[in-house]
Amino acid sequence: MKSDSVKSTVSWRALLDEAIHNFSEVGLPEIEARWITEEAAGGQLIGVSFEELVTNRAMAHYDNLISRRLNGEPLQYVLGHWQFRKLDLMVDQRVLIPRPETEVLVNHALDEIDRQGNEVLVADLGTGSGAIGFSIAVERISTQVWCTDLSEEALMVARANLAGLGQPAKRVSLCQGSWFEALPKSLQGKLGLVISNPPYVPTSETLPLEVKDWEPSMALYGGREGTDYLQKLIHESPSWLASKGALILEMSPNQTESMSSLALSKGFNEVFVGSDLADKPRLLVARKS
Ligand SMILES: C[S@@+](CC[C@H](N)C(=O)[O-])C[C@H]1O[C@@H](n2cnc3c(N)ncnc32)[C@H](O)[C@@H]1O
Over the stretch 66-103, which tens digit does the pLDDT of each residue have? Predict the structure, then answer.
């Protein structure tokens, strides 16, 4: 018998009950215990599989995942993947965990792409896991998407996610470098859309421990006011955008007003602020014309 198929005397149901109990003792929700146990089981736990005895190898995997979560590691990193729109993205400590508010940012991107018609060239700057750029490539066949990041480690994760994208991957390029410097110069004046969720947390802000201790600081902090990179992207995007092009940026609610004024002063003719799922101002759409 192969060592990885040796059975323990414990069922998946017993492990799930144990996880629910241990999580409730530290205030973690039952659903997380279920998701992690299912991950360790390699799929959904329904019907007869609940009563199956766990192999020793699966037990070791379960123990590892549960103790990581109890140690404070975010659920998404423990699971190793997370849903973003239509994508199931690999995530680990090298990248920011894609957030629901960023899914809304993509809705606005799709509207801009539809408004422009034909083939639209898109740059997703600071792509992390690839969440924004890959979603655009998957959801709009008319796009060519350049995804960039300064972090070589983040790009390794993006590369792995790109490999699982199928046909749309042919329309995606990954480039390493700082903001626009990563892009081929030939794209200057031709991009229909520049989109970014740059680091925008002020350096002095106290973040929850689960964010501060686990997510890459390079993905979080944007200088003293948090607006260093937002300002840079607003300053530099006009020369990269085509005449009807648009810039879409995610930011913190208290940054939207000053960033809207800056965009208007830098030659964008139409600027509006969009809200997140909690109805807070969260993003800026700035059109050239
Ligand atoms: C807030 S995260 C966004 C990740 C992903 N786009 C998302 O929405 O989930 C910001 C990303 O910007 C990248 N970044 C930080 N400084 C950068 C720079 N100078 N040039 C390009 N990317 C940078 C970080 O590595 C990180 O992946």
Answer: 999 999 999 999 999 999 999 999 999 999 999 999 99
- Same domain assignment for residues 8 and 127: no
Q: What is the pLDDT of residue 44?
A: 73
- Tell me what pLDDT residue 237 has: 98
Q: Quick one: 161 and 249 in the same domain?
A: yes
**CATH number assigned to the domain comprising residue 154:** 3.40.50.150
Q: Rounded to the nearest whole angstrom, what is the distance from the C-alpha of residue 198 to the centroid of ligand 1?
A: 5
> Has residue 106 been placed in a domain?
yes
Give pLDDT, residue 1: 47
Q: How many domains is the chain built from?
A: 2
For ligand 1, the distance from its centroid to the CA atom of residue 183, given in whole angstroms, is 15
Can you spell out the DSSP letters for 131-199?
HHHHHHHHH-TTEEEEEEES-HHHHHHHHHHHHTS-GGGGGEEEEESSGGGGS-GGGTTTEEEEEE---
Domain holding 96, by residue range, is 82-287
